[in-house]
């Protein structure tokens, strides 16, 4: 059984220069598809559940599903992460349900819509770090609001995301403020705003540096070389799957995601966690549509779900290979959460040390 913390996994990724996709999960088919790809490529895994996923599947079902995946794939280190926690209670209840890592997203207030000020964000994120670290769980914070540099708008998803438009400055993480935030909150990883947003409609044309600020990743990494950076909204929205979706009765208007080569550039500059939800949703629903269109009399859900799982496994395999995650699972010796807690308590695990070195 190999349930790993985000901190240990991202320390390993930094040491060996790779990135880890964090796939969102709501159901069994996504879990099996992701883990099949991990087994085929020997990749460690981050499975993340949003608050929406927790209410969709229920905490008990999600927790038991994670346990089942651990038993079925014992050779794969699995990090279980709360995506976009909005309150201290959300983060603590995730840990209570077996999550090894939580995101406290204090960039928005607890309503999930209103951009928060620095003091609120640093205060609540620091509080979650203090509590989570006591039991060895890891914490991701976010500074800057995720939104489009093309329109200034946020893509509210799953009840999360600001409404209306924001200034360019609020949509880009400031490196000096980031250094202060990491020092004050002691987060293990920092999500940054660089022009990516959740969902399928990120860019109306192939993104350039004006709308996808990869140069800012380079500046943030130069300022914070020991901080694990996280890219949210990092689906690539593959044309291949858009084509299947649209050829089978779907209506997805022209759209572009984050090119895989730009993510790989980020990984060369400190990006260690790459959030991907839309790509698996698109690949699977494209397959539902294809099956439904091709055999109108089909009523066995497995005939829809099996091709959907194959499609998701294909996407995951491609990302594990492109991000350099492949080939790393076997080497990792998982540090139990209780040991991680001792390392935080003894001060040997700060934002400037690695879990491996602190052993
Ligand atoms: P995508 O919508 O680009 O897949 O992003 C998912 C995400 O960032 C979840 O936090």
TrEMBL record:
Dihydroxyacetone phosphate binds at residues 199, 233-235, 275-278. One is catalytic and the other provides a structural contribution. Binds 2 Zn(2+) ions per subunit. One is catalytic and the other provides a structural contribution. Signal peptide: none annotated. The active site is at 83 (proton donor). It catalyses: beta-D-fructose 1,6-bisphosphate = D-glyceraldehyde 3-phosphate + dihydroxyacetone phosphate. InterPro entries: Aldolase_TIM (IPR013785), Class_II_FBP_aldolase (IPR050246), FBA_II (IPR000771), Fruct_bisP_Calv (IPR006412). Its cofactor is Zn(2+). Zn(2+) 1 binds at residues 84, 198, 232. GO terms for biological process: glycolytic process; reductive pentose-phosphate cycle. Zn(2+) 2 binds at residues 105, 142. It comes from the Bacteria. Pathway: Carbohydrate degradation; glycolysis; D-glyceraldehyde 3-phosphate and glycerone phosphate from D-glucose: step 4/4; Carbohydrate biosynthesis; Calvin cycle. SUPFAM superfamilies: Aldolase (SSF51569). Its EC number is 4.1.2.13. GO terms for molecular function: fructose-bisphosphate aldolase activity; zinc ion binding. Keywords: Calvin cycle, Glycolysis, Lyase, Metal-binding, Zinc. NCBIfam families: cbbA, FruBisAldo_II_B. Catalyzes the aldol condensation of dihydroxyacetone phosphate (DHAP or glycerone-phosphate) with glyceraldehyde 3-phosphate (G3P) to form fructose 1,6-bisphosphate (FBP) in gluconeogenesis and the reverse reaction in glycolysis. Belongs to the class II fructose-bisphosphate aldolase family. This is Fructose-1,6-bisphosphate aldolase. The lineage of its organism: Bacteria, Pseudomonadati, Pseudomonadota, Alphaproteobacteria, Rhodobacterales.
């Amino acid at each position: 059984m190999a349930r790993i913390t985000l901190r240990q996994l991202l320390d390993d990724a930094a040491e060996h220069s790779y990135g880890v996709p964090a796939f969102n999960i709501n159901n069994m088919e996504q879990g099996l598809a992701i883990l099949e790809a991990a087994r085929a490529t020997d990749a460690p895994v981050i499975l993340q559940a949003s608050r929406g996923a927790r209410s969709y599947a229920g905490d008990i079902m999600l927790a038991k599903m994670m346990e089942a995946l651990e038993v079925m794939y014992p050779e794969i280190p699995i990090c279980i992460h709360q995506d976009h926690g909005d309150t201290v209670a959300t983060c603590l209840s995730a840990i209570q349900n077996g999550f090894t890592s939580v995101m406290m997203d204090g960039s928005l207030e607890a309503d999930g819509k209103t951009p928060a000020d620095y003091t609120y964000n640093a205060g609540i994120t620091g509080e979650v770090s203090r509590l989570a670290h006591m039991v060895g769980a890891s914490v991701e914070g976010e500074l800057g609001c995720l939104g489009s540099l093309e329109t200034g708008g946020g893509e509210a998803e799953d009840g999360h995301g600001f409404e209306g438009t924001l200034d360019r400055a609020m949509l880009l993480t400031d490196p000096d403020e980031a250094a202060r935030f990491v020092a004050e909150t002691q987060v293990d990883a920092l999500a940054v705003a660089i022009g990516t947003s959740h969902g399928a409609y990120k860019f109306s044309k192939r993104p350039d540096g004006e709308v996808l600020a990869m140069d800012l990743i380079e500046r943030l990494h130069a300022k914070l070389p020991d901080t694990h950076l996280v890219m949210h909204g990092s689906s690539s929205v593959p044309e291949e799957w858009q084509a299947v979706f649209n050829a089978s009765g779907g209506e997805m208007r022209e759209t572009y995601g984050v090119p895989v080569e730009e993510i790989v550039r980020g990984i060369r500059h400190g990006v260690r966690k790459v959030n991907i939800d839309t790509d698996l949703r698109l690949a699977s629903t494209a397959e539902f549509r294809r099956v439904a269109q091709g055999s109108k009399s089909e009523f066995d859900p497995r005939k829809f779900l099996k091709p959907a799982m194959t499609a998701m496994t294909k996407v995951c395999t491609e990302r594990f290979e492109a991000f350099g995650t492949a080939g790393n699972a076997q080497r990792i010796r998982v540090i139990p959460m209780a040991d991680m807690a001792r390392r935080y308590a003894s001060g040997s695990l700060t934002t400037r040390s690695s879990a491996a070195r602190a052993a």
